[in-house]
Amino acid sequence: MELKNKVAMVARNGRELQRYNKGRRQVVGCIPYRIKSNKGKNFEDTLEVLVISAQRKGKGMLFPKGGWDSDETIKEAALRETIEEAGVFGTVEVILGQWLFKSKGNDTYYEGYMFPLLVKGQLDLWPEKDIRQRVWVSVPKAKEVCQQPWMKEALDLLVKRLESSATEINEESI
């Protein structure tokens, strides 16, 4: 059975299963990425990341993220949110980190966890297709359009991690 037949076409909603820590809602997300080529002046030229439009008020771009429910692991939640909001799936890799951030809409603080997601496929239909746009962009463009400072920090960590891995692979092949 193909993945597209397993994806629920309605995004989860409601807060009954949401995880909280010290009153802060826990959210998880992914930075979907792909390596477009091995040619470029620097590593960032070979990397593309997927950003999505913000749902509320329609301003700005960000990486897919949402609530971590009590009936799923942190990686399952990160993948679910990425499929629901961006319509891509792949390999959820080792966590990039944890951030505390303040909501743009109110005085609430959140705990955010971000993971890299090496994209293996893109769906034509996904739960939030009608309310979000998705765009593959360069790392510098993502830093320019992403409205969340903590997500930009996560992107910097991803680039450093991938750059380090690429350097190790190149040194081993010498």
State the helical fraction: 25-40%
How far is the first residue's CA from the last residue's CA?
Answer: 42 Å
Number of domains: 1
Low-confidence stretches: 1-6
Described by its quaternary structure, the protein is single chain
Rg result: 16 Å
Explained architecture:
This protein has 174 residues and is an alpha+beta fold. The chain has a single domain (16-172), classed as Nucleoside Triphosphate Pyrophosphohydrolase (Alpha-Beta Complex). The chain contains three helices and nine strands; from the N terminus they run βββββαββββαα. Strands 1, 2, 3, 4, 5, 6, 7, 8 and 9 form a nine-stranded mixed beta sheet that branches. Mean pLDDT is 85; it is low at 1-6.
List keywords for this structure.
Nucleoside Triphosphate Pyrophosphohydrolase, single chain, alpha+beta, 25% helix, 174 residues, globular, nine-stranded mixed beta sheet
Short description:
It is built from 3 helices and 9 strands. The chain is of the alpha+beta class and 174 residues long.
Helix/strand layout:
Blueprint (H helix, E strand, L loop, with lengths): L19 E2 L2 E12 L11 E7 L7 E2 L2 E3 L6 H13 L1 E5 L4 E6 L6 E14 L11 E5 H7 L3 H24 L2
Parallel strand pairs: 2-8
Antiparallel strand pairs: 1-2, 2-3, 2-5, 3-4, 3-9, 6-8, 7-8
